[in-house]
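Q: I'm writing a short methods note and want an example of a predicted protein-small molecule complex. Could you take the sequence and the SMILES for nicotinamide-adenine-dinucleotide and return the bound structure as tokens? Please keep the output block clean; save any remarks for afterwards.
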Amino acid sequence: MKIFITGIAGFIGFHLANFLLKNEFAVIGLDNLNDYYDPSLKHARLSELKLTSKESKRDFIFIKGNLEDYALLSKIFSDYNPDIVINLAAQAGVRYSLENPKAYLDSNIIGFSNIVECCKIHKIDHLIFASSSSVYGGNTKLPFSESQTVDHPISLYAATKKANELIAHTYSHLYDLKTTGLRFFTVYGPWGRPDMALFKFTKSILNDEHIDVYNNGDMIRDFTYIDDIVKSIFLLLNKKPEFNRNYDKDNPNPSSSWAPYKIFNIGNSDPQPLMDYIKSLEYSLNKKAKINFLPMQPGDVKATYANTDLLQEWIGFKPKTTIKYGINEFIKWYKNFYKTNN
Ligand SMILES: NC(=O)c1ccc[n+]([C@@H]2O[C@H](COP(=O)([O-])OP(=O)(O)OC[C@H]3O[C@@H](n4cnc5c(N)ncnc54)[C@H](O)[C@@H]3O)[C@@H](O)[C@H]2O)c1
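A: Understood, no commentary inside the block.
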């Protein structure tokens, strides 16, 4: 089976492709290798993928390019004829959406629209795409469940992810395109993103620098380990949503649809106070953090917590890796990759 992954040089795309190549899939990947964070990490991930493909003798094709380039996307779909498309390429990050809104409109709106259009034209079996826990926006009822309405985003990033869900649903309804959207909850692990807390905290603590902790540390996050995300996506590949004639349109439940469209939370369902997460990190590094307490950042939410019952029901699996294990795995990778002995 041929899988086309966008954002393949990114954190999640890399892990997913690595897993699929080891498990007898052929992988085609697209990424523009942008410099939102250090592109050398993206190049290193691609080198790793080339090694895996050599060892597993599975085809791996990488194309450097933009989701916004419709002609390029069309050519990729025609040339390689993928069975399943997994759209992970996006401008990520809540805070950066206040500084550079255009990047979000280009990648997440124009780029995503190009992907669904190509999936329609080329009659792709299943489109799986990344949404985000950010769509829960101003909601405060925890845990977040897919049956809640998500009409109150508080960042442009969240608004673009919600727009992706709406566009996907429309294509599912109009063209019978089978789409599955995944609301990821703070993903972490080896090869993780340098703009995210675990990476920034680790780097600063090892360099004896202060870490910035927002809302004076009064935040709760459902941290989700990368291997659980990969396993969930793997199990979803062949679970294609189907048309549901029993859907009650008089009482529309946001968690499902008549159209072949599904939406799932993918989180650990084990929210951690941010200060406890920092304590676990200090313990693993055997070093105290110097903390710079700061007020809440605009666009950030105070708490995330995933209800994953729908996912469990659909694929018989839900994330469960402990933060103790996950943080240790991250630190092992970080120290080895950056050759630090601290
Ligand atoms: N990591 C998380 O905690 C998290 C949480 C919620 C949602 N998500 C979503 O999951 C997806 C993957 O996230 P990630 O953590 O791997 O992010 P990432 O930034 O590491 O990966 C995204 C990749 O997409 C590429 N890209 C961005 N815009 C592009 C474009 N227009 N054309 C081609 N390539 C482009 C980037 O170069 C990058 O390599 C994203 O859609 C993100 O919004 C991630």
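A: Remarks, as requested: Residues 101-121 form the longest helix (21 residues). The longest strand covers residues 126-132.
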